[in-house]
Amino acid sequence: MKQIVYKSSARKALRRIPKNTAKLILGKIEQYAEDPASLANNVKKLQGREGIRLRVGDWRVIMHDGIVLEVIKIGSRGDVYND
Fold first, then answer.
1. How far apart are CA 74 and CA 81, in angstroms?
2. CA-CA distance, 67 to 76, in Å (whole number)?
């Protein structure tokens, strides 16, 4: 299993969204860290910038996948891609 590091913006987003949704998102991130192939249908490489995105329902998780899985941003489908 890869080590997971959350940026402050991702932690802040998790605190703002409903607890049941946050638990679901955290579970999917941990599942991806253990076995990336298990979520292959919900993970895509980002276009125009580095990183990948994980789809969890209407929520998106922007991550960098290397030796350490770095969670950059968590947000709703329309807002997460805006910088």
1. 10
2. 27
pLDDT tens per residue across span 44-75 = 999 988 999 999 999 999 999 999 999 999 99
Residue type for 63, please? M
What is the pTM (predicted TM-score) of this model? 0.91
Indicate whether 78 pLDDT > 90.
no
Query: 17-42 burial, b if ≥16 CB within 10 A, otherwise e?
Result: eeeeebeebbebbeebbeeeeebeeb
CA-angle at 18, arms to 17 and 23, nearest 5°: 95
Backbone φ, ψ for residue 6 (5° rounding): -105, 130
